Amino acid sequence: MQRPKLRLSALVCSLFAGLLFVGSAGAGDTVGMTPASQAEGSFYLSEGMGPLPSSHPYGGAEHALNATWGSVGEPLLRLLPRYSTPNGFELAFKDVESIPEVREISNVVCHEDEPIADPMGLSAVNWVWGQFITHDIDLTTTQNGRSPGTSAESAYYHIPIDDPWMNPHGQEEFALRMFRSVYIPDTGTSPDNPREHPNNITAWIDGGLIYGDNAERANWLREFDGGRLKSTSSTTGDLLPIADYATEPNAPKMSFSGFNSQTPYIAGDIRAQEHIALMAMHSLFVREHNRLAALLAEANPSWTDEQLYHTARAIVIAEVQVVTYEEYLPSLGVILDSWSGHQPDLSPSVSNAFATVAFRVGHSQIGDTILRLDENREVIAQGNQNLFKGFFALENIEQDGGLDPVFRGLAYDVQPAADSRYVNDLRNFMFGSPGLGGQDMCSIDILRGRDHGVPPYVDYRNSSLIGLGPANNWTDITQNQTLVNQLSSVYLNISHVDAYVGMMIEDRLPNSSFGPSMTAIWKDQFQRIRDADPSFYLANDALAEILDELNRTRLSDIILRNSDIQAIQCDVFFASTTLDCLTPRTTPYGPSKNLTSESSAETKTCTGCCGDPDYEAPPDGCVACACGSEDGWLPSPALYVSLAAVLIAAASHSSSDEEDDC
User: What domains are defined for the chain?
Assistant: First the structure.
């Protein structure tokens, strides 16, 4: 089988990080610490610990000082007022004759001949986790007219007559439809009462995408036995549960009903089966919940199903928070202010600027192929998964080796750089060929911002949140002359540049793949969600006994605990050929990263154990492995933490609308 090539940028990045790490140790000294993973063992089971209370209420209501903050149906927050139109509901720039069509912008700014690998070596895990986490905090549904008593409302984007991809036959009148977003009733009646849009899931990072955002969906997903979630047995590992609508007509539905896989896999979020990588992440956390429930039941035979379920749920929610704030955001260069405790007067509400603009940058970081690799990191016999053919194609998971090949491939592959470019499968063939369901993701991203009345880019950069001041020249946005020429060729006026386009084009901050505007909006959103949440894992007193173990948890641990993967890099958010976390390892791999203070835990170190899966720790145990140069140095997760502090990159995935947006 052909072994996929790890892109050069990732290798250079790893080597540079290694030099940094070796340099800090000094010649002839111990040069590395290779922590063991928390792959197996009775983690989070402190002796004498009682059952945990329910972490977050379904639907998010009554969770904060203001009962509606973060709840289902709450309006998306406005960081700036909606773009003013005469009737309060027209698309932004509708009154500007010179505003370019979104497909025209896409053809100039978003077209990509060859993908450029992320210069910092971010792995494809990054964009998948970005999509996964946004599906926990934002859902803007569309007016497609399919629900009883509703009608469709559309916006169209015209395809140029000379468009070689979507209009090869040169049709004069050719346009593609985008359904407009659902809006809150009684808004959009005038300039003084502009249209506003609801968030149809909670804004909290509360595991709603795993457990559901309402009691009905949550109850359907439960077995009500042993605290477990429903799942589908498979020889390659449990998958999401499958609904039988013939016998359960009221079973939960999933989105994209016109495109859906014939097998109705059900998850807490309606978008879970868009593609195999997203479905893999959902299945992973169902497995993790059930693993925890089984351990808890064994250790506490008197606990009820309710106690087991809510304890496992609380731990899984905390794990999702830890991975997001300790791994994902730092890998993007989004550095939040230090944790200073719960702030009850702060709203977590998702902003239009975040959901409709800044978080969509991840579409540029999706590659055209999902690698599927065996344990030797060679392509499996069934081959890789083409993105174009993989939308909602979940019919042969078991025959294709299950989810393990997908996780290996995501961690091994370097994702495309965070820029304005989109792969062909997203820009010309999303959901099908042109005229047969095919859409342009870049055009939709720009048009969605206009649908929500998002003000132009210059208004954001001049706001108090970002504080860059006005943009008087194209070079105030970017010093890249090619991008300057592209922008000025489609926009006649710098004040009309769409917010999404301007933020994609901005010059990146040092040690980041984001520009200042996008970084500020990301920081604002995730910091408010963290600080406003009384059940955030650092604020939740019920989790105090297991806080150190939670702080030590990485996504690689959760993957190793719930798969047959034998080795993977400890920091899966950076692509690597150094698989420094192995299974089975039963000792924690380092001191706590508690954000509130430096850990006082003693670090016991064993020497000579680096990279040796058969190494047995001495009776008193150890939490890290010291590698002398004679032992054969191997990089460790500490290397990647150092790397993230110096060479941080950005990746994400946008918020997704129920029908049109990926």
Answer: 8-50+60-646 (1.10.640.10)
